[in-house]
Design a protein that fits this description.
The protein is of the alpha+beta class and 499 residues long. It is built from 14 helices and 19 strands. Strands 11, 12, 13, 14, 15, 16 and 17 form a 7-stranded mixed β-sheet that branches. The longest helix is centred in the N-terminal third of the chain and has 23 residues. It is globular and about 70 Å long. The chain starts with a helix and ends with a strand.
Amino acid sequence: MQYRGSHLRAAALAGLSVLALLAAGPAEAAKTSVTLGMRLEPPHLDPTAGAAAAIDEVVFINLFEGLTQVDKDGSVKPVLAESWTISDDGKTYIFKLRSGVKFHDGSDFNADDVKFSLERGKAADSANAQKAKFEQIEAVEVVSPTEVKVTLKQPVGDFLTFLGTGDAVMVAPETAAENKAKPVGTGPFRFGQWVQGDKVDLTRSPDYWGTPVKLEKATFKVIADNAAAFSAMMAGDVDGFPIFNAPENLPQFAADPRFAVVVGTTEGETILSTNNAREPFSNLKVRQAIAHAIDRKALIDGAMFGYGTPIGSHFAPHHPAYKDLTSTYPQDLEKAKALMAEAGLANGFKATLKLPPPTYARRGGEILASDLKKIGIELELIPLEWAQWLEQVFKGKDYDLTIVSHTEANDINIYARDDYYFNYSNPELKALMAKLDATSDPAARNELYGQAQEIIAKDAVNGYLFQLAKTGVWDAKLKGLWENAPVQANDLTGVYWED
C-alpha cells in the first residue's frame, strides 16, 4: 500500500504541475512594439519642409534617410551613400550610392532622386528650414544611377554633417508633394497612420535595404499635459518618453525599479529670443539690461528643477569649441537699471512674451517676467500652441520676446541670416560665418566658432539661458534609445525589448 500510495501522490503532483502550466499559458515572448510619448505633435511629417523638431523626432532615421547620418555620438556615418571622395579644393563631392535601395512605395532609389532632393532644397519655392545650406550647392550631376557629383560654390566644412540631418533626407519626385501627410522614405520603418491630435504609427518595412529592425511597430503618442504624461507612464500606457517634460517627477521614476531614468545632453540652446528690429529691443543697451537682469540659476532650478547647464552664447557646452561666456553679463540689477536709464527708459516699458507649449517656456516665462519686472519691464505673457508660434513668431516675426530651445546642431550660423526671425544683422559676423564655411580644418573651425560666440554674446542678441538636458524615462526592459541628442531624432533602429 505504501508503494502504491507513493505513485498515486506522484501522479497527483504531476497532474497539478500540468494544470499549472496550462493555466500559465505559453512562455511570454519578447515585445515587438513600442509606444513612446512626446509633448508636441508634429505639424506635418515632412522633415524637409518645416522647422519643428517634432517632425524629425518621429520620422528622421526611422522613415526617412539621408546620404549620411549624424550618429548618436555626433559622428557622421554613411547611409544611402556607401562612400564618397572629396576634391583637394574641398568643393567637389562624388557620392557612391548603395544599390538595391527602394522607397516604401516600391520604386528604386537612385542618383536622380539625390539630384531632385538637393535641388528641391535650394529651389526658389523651397520650404526647407535650412534652405541657406542648400544654396551653397552650385550643381548636382548624375554620373550614373549609383553615382552623384555635387559641386559647391565654395568649401563647406560641415557639408557631410549637414547631409546627415533631417533637413537633407532623400525623397522621391513622385511622392514628395504628399510627404506631409503620407510620407514615403527609404528607412527601416514605413508610415502606418496618423491620428491627428493623438498618435503616429510606424510599421517595420519588410523590404528595407539594411539590417532589419527588431520592432514590428512603433507608436508616437502625443501627450501634451505633464500630469497625463506621468499617469500614462505609471499605468504602462506608454513605454517611455525620450524627453520627459516634467523633471520634478524624475526622482519618483528613479526610485521605481520598473523605470530607467537617463539624463543626457542635447543641442538645445534655450534662449530668450529677441526681435532686434523692434523698438526698444533694437537698442543694445536695452538688450544688455535684459541680459544683466536674468538669474540663470533661478531659472534652471525653478523651470527645470536643476536640469540644465547655464550658457552665455548660442553654443552647446559639450562641443569642443564651446566658450563659457556666462560672465559677459552676470546678473546685476543695478547695472541693468543704469543701462535702462542710459537708453532713456528709466521708467521702464511694457512688452509681450510669447510662449510656446514646452515646460521650459511656460514655466521659464513666469520666472523671466519676475526678473525683468525688477528693472521696470512689464511683460504680458501670451501662451501659444506650437502651430501658432511657428506662424506668428518664427515665420511672421510678429513678437517682442519669446522663449524657445534651438535644437539644431552647430546652428550659430542662423545669426548671419538676414531673414531669420531674430532680425539681427552684423557684417562682421557674416564675414566670419563665410570664412567658417570655407574652412575644413577642425582646429581652425573651432577658433572661428569661438569668435562667433563672443560677437553674439557681446551684442546680447538674445538672452542666453541654458542648455536643455535630455531627461528621458522609459521601461527598464526597453533598450537602445539614445542617451544624448546630437540631432533631433528618436532613432529606433537599435531599440529592442530585453527578455
